[in-house]
Amino acid sequence: MVVRVLDAVLDLLVPPRCAGCGGRGALVCPRCAAELTAAPRRHVPDAPPEGLPECWAAAGYDGVARRVLIAYKERGRTALGAALGACLARALTHLQVEGPLVLVPVPSTRRSRRAKGHDPVRRVAEVAARRLRAGGLQVTVAPVLRPARKVADQAGLTSAQRAANLAGAFTSRPVPRGRVVLVDDVITTGATLAEAARALRAAGAEADCAVTVAATRKRVPVMRHARRSQFR
Ligand SMILES: [Zn+2]
């Protein structure tokens, strides 16, 4: 925790290093920012779980996107939310999903929210919504999803095991009217997003699609930082 706070303070005091490449001068340098805001790609997991909406990811979960997400989520560099929100906004613009849009962030667990002091995906969704509104779109963020129970660590589980582990993991409050877009940081097997979509459906809303910052390119990769994240 102390290290994370220190990192955040240092971001304010010394010329920042790019979270993507380590170069001096910007939180995310123009080259890395360009990589984050490239055209989004459709992501179809090898064995898509039932009820998974159409998924789009702005970047692959390697290289720049992975390093920026880890710095943002695990190292307390909350200022990176701006770059990640821009990434998501760009993806949504590219998809030309017509409004009014309702962005529903996939929630962090209570425990990880407490540990990190913020809800990272919700923050990114809010930045994206502000940017899209500035561009004239009607967009709201609806943090209607809540963790319903504890789930086991997802790391190392197969697609089927992840789906079983997450069944009934979320509940949803009523969803505002509009085109509902699920928002998350990373998609791997799609189990989390399928469960989120199920919870929305139970509350009477159908997710139009899901947009994430990044998508893993392999089926179930072993991610070092996934150990700390229950939902990936
Ligand atoms: Zn860079």
Based on secondary structure, the structural category is alpha/beta
CATH fold assignment: Rossmann fold
Question: How much helicity do the residues have?
Answer: 25-40%
Number of strands: 8
Overall, the morphology is: globular
Structural features, described:
With 232 residues, the chain is of the alpha/beta class. The chain has a single domain (2-215), classed as 3-Layer(aba) Sandwich (Rossmann fold). It has eight helices and eight strands. Helix 7 runs parallel beside helix 8. The model is unreliable at 219-232 (pLDDT under 50). The protein binds zinc ion. The site of zinc ion has 7 residues, from helix 2.
Short description:
38% of the residues lie in helices and 17% in strands. With 232 residues, it is an alpha/beta fold.
